[in-house]
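wait is this the right file?? whatever heres the structure
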């Protein structure tokens, strides 16, 4: 453990500790550049599959309103919550960024949630996300936002990966992920566990527990729920890299997007996250500002299943905001500048009155 981290539930990092907990991602950063203008090689299998998924999801949304039982709808919402947590609290904050540590029961729970989400096994998801942070907005970024909204949202999954993505991914050190027995087990049996957890059980449970029809169970709890979670996750790569304030670093694409934060359980505070990727909250304000994932981690910290939660001191945040922010920060941004300007005007007026 670094010298300035604590043995308590939460450790606040100073500038010397910062790089230790970002998985080494702050080293060897490729300078920002526009994407290479090359012809994309489409993968028609993926195009057909994602096309079916979205048509099926639209039908499932209609069934939610027209014929599905209320238990089926609530079950789909429940699956959305736990599968999203498998991405946000699991693959992202625990395994990709190592922003906190988890005991075995929580790791198993998050691996199960992650399998329900079906966005590749957590080991591969975390590897690709580390590449995204290390080479953000370059050709080595899997969902390079400089290629446009559609590419960063879903287009990157409909074409062959750029050679730089493959090359940089192979060179990335993921020995910590490979050494995790939970991730090893999930990866080994993923193609067996994933269909059962993501599609089969979500369809069978409503049919046999409360008598739902196959049509409603399949299109609502499997197709609609799965596609909805996918698009919420993709919005972090697309919308949160395009729209929003940049109070921490105005020179990068990732932005503060409250709408994405609501649906993605706190992942939309993206300008903060790309500046301070080791913070387990992925945000400055914590678990109660559209950040359900942080509240989830905090709960398990209280019962001892999560520990060594890493966050950033107010001093470091303030320094960064004043140095590179766009002036929109709620404490150290435009509000203070306006106040300072107002005070200067009042002082000048008072001075003139006394002349």
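ok assuming it is, sequence goes like this
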């Amino acid at each position: 453990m670094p010298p300035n981290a604590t043995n308590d539930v939460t450790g606040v990092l100073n500038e010397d500790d910062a790089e230790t907990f970002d998985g080494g991602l702050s080293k060897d950063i490729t300078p920002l550049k526009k994407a290479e203008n090359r012809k994309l090689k489409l993968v028609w299998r993926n195009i057909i599959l994602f096309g079916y998924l979205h048509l099926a999801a639209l039908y499932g949304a209609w069934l939610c309103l027209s014929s599905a039982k209320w238990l089926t709808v609530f079950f789909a919402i429940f699956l959305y919550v736990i599968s999203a947590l498998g991405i946000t609290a699991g693959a992202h904050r625990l395994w990709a960024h190592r922003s906190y540590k988890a005991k075995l029961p929580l790791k198993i729970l998050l691996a199960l949630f992650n399998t329900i989400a079906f966005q590749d096994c957590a080991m591969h998801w975390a590897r690709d996300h580390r590449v995204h942070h290390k080479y953000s907005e370059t050709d080595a970024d899997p969902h390079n936002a400089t290629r446009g909204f559609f590419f960063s949202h879903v287009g990157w999954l409909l074409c062959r990966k750029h050679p730089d993505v493959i090359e940089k991914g192979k060179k990335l050190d993921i020995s910590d992920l490979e050494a995790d027995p939970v991730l090893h087990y999930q990866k080994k049996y993923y193609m067996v566990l994933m269909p059962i957890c993501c599609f089969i059980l979500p369809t069978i449970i409503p049919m046999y527990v409360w008598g739902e029809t196959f049509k409603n169970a399949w299109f609502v709890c499997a197709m609609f729920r799965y596609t909805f979670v996918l698009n919420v996750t993709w919005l972090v790569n697309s919308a949160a890299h395009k729209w929003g304030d940049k109070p921490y670093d105005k020179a990068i694409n990732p932005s503060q997007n409250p709408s994405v934060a609501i649906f993605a359980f706190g992942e939309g505070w993206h300008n903060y996250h790309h500046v301070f990727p080791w913070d387990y909250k992925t945000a400055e304000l914590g678990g109660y500002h559209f950040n359900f994932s942080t509240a989830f981690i905090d709960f398990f910290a209280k019962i001892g299943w999560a520990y060594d939660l890493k966050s950033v001191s107010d001093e470091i945040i303030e320094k960064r905001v004043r140095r590179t922010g766009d002036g929109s920060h709620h404490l150290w941004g435009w509000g203070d500048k306006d106040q300072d300007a107002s005070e200067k005007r009042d002082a000048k007026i008072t001075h003139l009155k006394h002349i």
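Confidence is low (pLDDT under 50) at residues 1-10, 14-32, 336-355. so i think its the right one actually
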